[in-house]
Amino acid sequence: MNLNHFKIIGLLFLIISCADTKVEDRAKTETSAVSSVENYKNKTLQIYTTARDTQLRLTKTSTHTFSDKVQPLETEIVVFVNPEKTFQEYLGIGGAITDASSEVFSTLNDTQQNKLLQSLYGKDGIGYNIIRTSIHSSDFGLGSHTYIEEGDAELKTFSIEKDKEKRVPFIKRAIDLIGDDLVFYASPWSPPAFMKSNNNMLQGGKLLPEFRQAWANYYVKFIRAYEAEGIPVWGLTIQNEPMAVQRWESCIYTAEEERDFLKNYLGPTLEKEGLGDKNIVVWDHNRDLITDRANTIFEDPEASKYAWGIGFHWYETWTGGLPKYDNLKNINESFPSKNMLFTEGCQEGFTTEKLQFWPNAERYGNSMINDFNSGVVGWTDWNILLDERGGPNHVKNFCFAPIHANTKTGELIYTPTYYYIGHFSKFIKPGALRVSTSTSRTTIESTSFKNKDGKIVTVVMNPTDTKIAYKLIVGNSETVLEIEPRAMQSIIY
Hints:
A hairpin with a 5-residue loop joins β17 (445-450) and β18 (456-462). The protein folds into two domains: 38-88 and 435-492, Sandwich (Immunoglobulin-like), CATH 2.60.40.1180; 91-427, Glycosidases (TIM Barrel), CATH 3.20.20. A ten-stranded mixed β-sheet has the order 2-1-21-18-17-16-4-19-20-3, covered by helices on one side. It has an eight-stranded parallel beta barrel with strand order 5-6-7-8-9-10-11-12, surrounded by five helices. Strands 13-14-15 form a three-stranded mixed β-sheet. The radius of gyration is 26 Å and the shape is globular. Helix content is 32%, strand content 25%. The chain has helices spanning 3-37, 99-106, 110-121, 161-165, 167-178, 212-228, 255-272, 290-298, 301-304, 325-334, 358-373, 416-425; strands at residues 44-51, 59-65, 67-68, 78-89, 92-96, 130-135, 183-188, 235-237, 279-286, 307-313, 339-344, 378-383, 385-387, 403-405, 412-414, 433-439, 445-450, 456-462, 468-474, 477-483, 487-492. It is an alpha/beta fold.
């Protein structure tokens, strides 16, 4: 055997030795992963349920324990949770305190006001921590208004006195209950009429170039005025629904116009005024055109540096199509450093007959599960409270809210939507991390989050008319559960 033969044999031994080492290292890693999830065996699960045609409303319905995982069969329905794979940090859930909500709240007696506040923000309520409000007026109120006299480009007359009548006190009472987890942000529906191309707060129009700086200054005035009232402003969106010409307050920005306003006016102005820590959210419209907005703004480094993330609504289904969740996943993949925030959704077309209409709640459940699974960090419902007509709304755009108040009787009406939202907001806490979750069937939907205390919350929705038996497999442990027809469950373990 010559020297080359010995060299070849030596090389083969080296390769085999390295391969064995890699296999050993991988085995150690896998063993470590296995051992970290084996502690779910014998762990207790608490199940809370809301179901149609029952009295179950966020009701604790059963307790189970995990056992050793058994290989699931193709005939079984399974929810798979992998606690070793975590994703975005949860910011929270909440809703908007509008002029309409404030108006309705003011009609309630002290007992009902306290009941409403506790239902949404209290320890025994559903744990809202996000508040959105409008910069001056939106359609949900008794009429249009601004904070300045018409024509005052220098903002010398700026005042939030109107907000201080009902809206600000309502917000402050909510904040008192939320505490340190508060996320408060604001959105404009339209600049003052004189700043716009159509000289009208309604019916679209555009911000005139000569008023871009004045309008940027307006945001600064708003932030300082609200913070002077003890309301810390987390952030703002640039424009509510910037591609919709509405019969109510509205204003149009193309993607390029919003980009340039952000990088040349709003971003630098906030920074100059010592407000560079405020989080700016772009778009604030539907999922359909969101990718174009993200590409245009986030690909521009001078604009992108001012943008915390992108906000969106769910109304793209007005065409009759399905929600465009894939667009969110595309943004999450394309711009992983940017955040996504659901900024508004509600069921349109109010009718009294549908106050307890279950599909309204299921629309929320489907959206929240899919939005979170797409990488969304927070979720903001529209009006937290409306009256018995779905208003007040000065252009008669009446809608549903999770809670309605009959202003004639003072009765609070809790819709199924309130409870479906609560299956997330009551149990998932700010700072939680989303956990890898998938299902083996389209008949159930699910997402999971791991709270800071180590507890995992798995939310499961059954939109079918059939009771479903399913396995919950967490790592190498499993339990067998049931979910009622047309129901939502929160499982805590």
